[in-house]
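Researcher: For the annotation table, I need structure tokens for RQC P-site tRNA stabilizing factor. Please keep the output clean. Sequence:
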Amino acid sequence: MRLDKFLKVSRIIKRRTVAKEVADKGRIQVNGILAKSSSNVKIGDQIKIQFGNKTLEIEVLELHDSTKKEDAEKMYQVISETRVENTTKLD
């Protein structure tokens, strides 16, 4: 399954176009390798996504072409979720 489709179906990222943009900007790694939106994802892969101030690391558990909202979280397991603190101070 394509990376951008997995991110949309699993509801990690709401829209496929946004998932494509994030991947194409170099903010997603699959198994430690920079990934494009067209990269293939398979069960057991580890995906690391850098959002604005958050890094999410997940493991792929299931692949589905479509899923209900309540089943979407069963497609992956969160390994770690870290926030990057903004260190700039405004006086």
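Researcher: And a one-line annotation?
Model: The first helix runs from residue 3 to 9.
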